[in-house]
Amino acid sequence: MSLAQQLLPSVPDDSLILFDQGYYSLGLLHLWQNQGRNTHWMLPARKDLQYQVERSKSRNDEIVILTTSPQARKKFEGLPEQLRECYRPITLAERAIEY
Question: Does pTM surpass 0.85?
Fold first, then answer.
């Protein structure tokens, strides 16, 4: 069990969990999102991220379909074949923080 899995019981309601780019497990991300009420996750997209655009919500937001692997579905019971998530590309200029 990973450290992230051990933290699942402490996921607070109304939260946004930020993950590192190197951490990509749709099974665990699905568990995080369904652990509490109004919980969300965000992580930088990998260069090789494969998804299908289901629809656009706005100029910058899209609802995308991510397909889970058979290995992930075997490891994470109840993981669906597809996840629908909001995808928002962030440009380098948007990453700048002003104080």
Answer: no
